[in-house]
């Protein structure tokens, strides 16, 4: 007779259940979620938009541009002035030929040279007369120098010499220096006019004694 094994669960002999290991899952790369960009023109878009600030201008470049524009402006201005000068008359601005030199009492005996630079004249006074010599050598038109130590006028160009009254005595000068017209104006001052000159040509009648060539003092 077969023996039937008793499969009845007996206390103290139950087996513990084995832990169930889940099957390994295949590795998956999770993609980051896409962030939706805000629409252009919306307030959200304005907040998220990055505004790039402009870089400050290079001071060296600014200086270089300033110099270049200055040179261009100067060149154009010069051309414009030359253009105007082409159409303007070429006049010489000379001092007036009529001028006052002061009162007769302002001059002592001798030669006064303070008007030479401006009017090219010397005021000369002697014991009887006051007259004005036009400072131009009668040789070639140079301006003589007054030499007080030698009491004479000396031309630096060719050596012509004149006395303190402008009478030639040495060098190539052919005649004395001319004298300007003089008169007393209503104020009592000496008025000189270099547009009218009195001459004393060699071998001819001198004009140095004519009225207007001197003043009695």
Can you put this structure into words, describing what you see?
This protein has 3 helices and 11 strands, in the order ααββαβββββββββ. With 217 residues, the chain is α+β, with helices and mostly antiparallel strands. The strands form 2 sheets. Strands 1, 2, 3, 4, 9, 10 and 11 form a 7-stranded antiparallel β-sheet that branches. A 4-stranded antiparallel β-sheet has the order 5-6-7-8, with no helix packed on it.
Features:
alpha+beta, single chain, seven-stranded antiparallel sheet, 217 residues, Rieske Iron-sulfur Protein
Secondary-structure topology with pairs:
Blueprint: H1 43-48, H2 59-87, E1 98-102, E2 110-112, H3 116-119, E3 121-125, E4 129-134, E5 145-147, E6 152-154, E7 161-162, E8 168-170, E9 179-184, E10 190-198, E11 215-216
For this structure, what is the CATH class of the domain at 98-216? Mainly Beta
Distance between the termini: 193 Å
Sequence stretches where pLDDT stays below 50 over 5 or more residues: 1-10
Structural class: alpha+beta
CATH superfamily of the domain at 98-216: Rieske [2Fe-2S] iron-sulphur domain
Quickly describe the structure:
The chain is of the alpha+beta class and 217 residues long.
């Amino acid at each position: 007779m077969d023996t039937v094994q008793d499969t009845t669960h007996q206390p103290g002999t139950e087996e513990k259940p084995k832990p169930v290991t889940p099957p390994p899952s295949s590795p998956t790369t999770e993609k980051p979620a896409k962030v939706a960009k805000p629409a252009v023109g919306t307030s959200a878009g304005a907040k998220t938009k990055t505004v790039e600030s402009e870089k400050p201008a290079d001071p060296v470049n600014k200086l270089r541009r300033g110099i270049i524009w200055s040179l261009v402006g100067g060149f154009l201005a010069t051309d414009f002035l030359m253009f105007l000068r082409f159409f303007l008359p070429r006049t010489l601005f000379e001092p007036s030929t009529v001028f006052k030199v002061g009162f007769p009492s302002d001059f002592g005996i001798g030669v006064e040279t303070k008007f030479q630079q401006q009017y090219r004249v010397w005021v000369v006074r002697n014991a009887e007369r006051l007259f004005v010599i036009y400072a131009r050598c009668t040789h070639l038109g140079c301006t003589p120098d007054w030499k007080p130590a030698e009491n004479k006028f000396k031309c630096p160009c060719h050596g012509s010499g004149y006395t303190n009254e402008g009478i030639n005595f040495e060098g190539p000068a052919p005649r004395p220096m001319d004298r300007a017209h003089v008169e007393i104006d209503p104020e009592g001052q000496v008025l000189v006019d270099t547009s009218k000159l009195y001459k004393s040509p060699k071998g001819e009648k001198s004009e140095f004694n004519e009225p207007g060539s001197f003043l009695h003092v």
